[in-house]
Fold this sequence. Notes:
By secondary structure, this protein is mostly helical.
Amino acid sequence: MFASFIITFREVLEAALVVVIVLAYLKRTGQTRYYKNVWTGISTGVLLSILLAFFFNMVYGGLAGRTEEIFEGATMLVAAGLLTWMILWMAMQKNIAGKLETEIDRRIGEGHALGISALVATAVLREGVEMVIFMQAARFAGSADLLGAVSGAALATSLGYLLFMGSRRIRVKTFFQVTSIILVLFAAGLVSHGIHEFEEAGILPSIVKPLYDITWFLSKEGPLGGILNALFGYTGRPSLMEMSGYTAYLLLILVFLSQIRRLQTGKAGVPGCAKTLKG
């Protein structure tokens, strides 16, 4: 449940921030007549995301045996890659709000009102595509849950509304920092799960299996082990290949994040969004 909650919370909040920035800017500049274009963009993005989820399930439903294992493994690795890109991209942003406002001005100035719809639809669809892939990967890993997904989406939508109304000073940066840490560990687990599926399909060698066995102490079939397995890919009997992939992923993303921090001269983009919204 917690993994599903974090995934939908993070993705819906990112989409909500874009929508809130656009709405707030249109309100501040007295161009509320373009609100309808924002709602059109939201509806289009959500509809396309639902169609993608339906197509994804339709394709997966026709798979079995080794093909199914390969598909699940590939989905998990793709999801891990997208999560990594999302985390690193967010860490590099400095002024998301300013860039969006410039883009809105350009599209309005050129008389392209539908461009605002396209801008919002693209943002919503991007997060929707990521969420579909992440949730499918979580389902393959045994950590998908409808209640958690709905709760995460509802909370993110509520936060977006509060930001737009200006009734709460919400530290958006803190939310993204905490969820980024959780998602890094979740992505590492997806890498491990994906490698496991490829081992089962005979594509990758296990090399040593198991590398160790601590199931007597903490089994993934137990309550705590099950939670750790669903969230972070824990297994008490990993192969050398699984453990190597898990460790290598964590080391690489820590190196990338450290480099980004060193290159940054100011604060990242999310605080800029929050500042703009409060202003």
